[in-house]
């Protein structure tokens, strides 16, 4: 049974409508369509449940894969029946999502006393806990976060001007303030991290405040090196492309990002950053 409020359900479903605009190729094997369809499936399970009429209706839709037929040297046509099936299913799914949104919004209007809980509030900032000796790699992490869609004022990182502590500000007070805010903490775990008293203090403060956190590991450090300290299921290596995709999904959801990159654009930018990271490693 899901615990999302109607407001949160509406937000998640509106994100599907927005993301559907990235589907510009009427082909079930298109990477943008696949990404969107997978997002629809995950969202429906979260919002309605995998035994709901909404999810069952979604599963019955057929987006037929079809093969291009080359006519002449430069003209491509498609099997009309497959194209018609794709268009009908795509249109029907979008129409259904819009109908679900309308029904939920009516419920919100009918229940004006609904109070948003902590799950309905977007996070405000990413706090990057790192050793200053790893600043070159941390700069690439900032690049990843900004590529995902975060603004510079949503990232707190003490190593770089514009992301950290203003001149004249109290260092420890500012860190305490940022950790106490609605923030997601990313630990950049390295051999340098464990040698830094400030980093270990930030980790301790995160445990005390029960802040949501993600460990990001810098090789040659491995998952086995942090076993028993941070749950392995939450972590990723700084150069793991597939897990960076999961990080992107989480940031988009937790910060309510709407103006996000298409899958193909994100993957191109992601791979370029990872290539720079691997050179440094």
TrEMBL record:
Domain (TIR): residue spans on this chain: 122-255
UniProt-listed GO biological process terms: signal transduction
Record Pfam families: TIR_2
Organism placement in taxonomy: Bacteria, Pseudomonadati, Pseudomonadota, Gammaproteobacteria, Alteromonadales
Protein's name according to its UniProt entry: TIR domain-containing protein
InterPro entries: TIR_dom (IPR000157), Toll_tir_struct_dom_sf (IPR035897)
Domain of life according to the entry: Bacteria
């Amino acid at each position: 049974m899901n615990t999302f409020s109607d407001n949160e359900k509406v937000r998640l479903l509106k994100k599907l409508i927005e993301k559907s605009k990235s589907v510009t190729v009427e082909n079930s094997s298109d990477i943008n369509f696949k990404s969107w369809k997978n997002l629809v499936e995950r969202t429906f399970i979260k919002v309605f449940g995998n035994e709901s009429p909404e999810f069952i209706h979604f599963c019955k839709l057929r987006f037929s894969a079809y093969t291009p037929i080359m006519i002449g040297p430069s003209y491509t046509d498609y099997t009309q029946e497959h194209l018609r099936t794709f268009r009908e299913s795509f249109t029907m799914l979008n129409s259904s999502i819009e109908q679900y949104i309308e029904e939920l919004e009516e419920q919100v209007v009918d229940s004006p006393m609904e109070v948003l809980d902590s799950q309905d509030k977007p996070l405000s900032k990413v706090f990057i806990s790192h050793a200053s000796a790893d600043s070159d790699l941390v700069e690439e992490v900032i690049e990843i976060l900004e590529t995902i869609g975060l603004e510079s004022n949503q990232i707190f990182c003490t190593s770089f001007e514009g992301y950290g502590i203003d001149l004249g500000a109290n260092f420890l007070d500012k860190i305490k303030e940022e950790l106490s805010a609605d923030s997601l903490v990313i630990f950049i775990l390295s051999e340098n991290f464990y040698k830094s008293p400030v980093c270990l203090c930030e980790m301790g403060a995160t445990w005390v405040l029960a802040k949501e956190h993600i460990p990001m590991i810098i090789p040659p450090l491995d998952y086995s090196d942090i076993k028993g300290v941070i749950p392995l299921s939450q972590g990723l290596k700084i150069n793991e492309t597939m897990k960076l995709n999961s990080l992107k999904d989480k940031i988009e959801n937790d910060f309510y990002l709407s103006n996000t990159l298409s899958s193909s654009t994100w993957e191109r930018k992601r791979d370029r950053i990872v290539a720079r990271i691997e050179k440094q490693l």
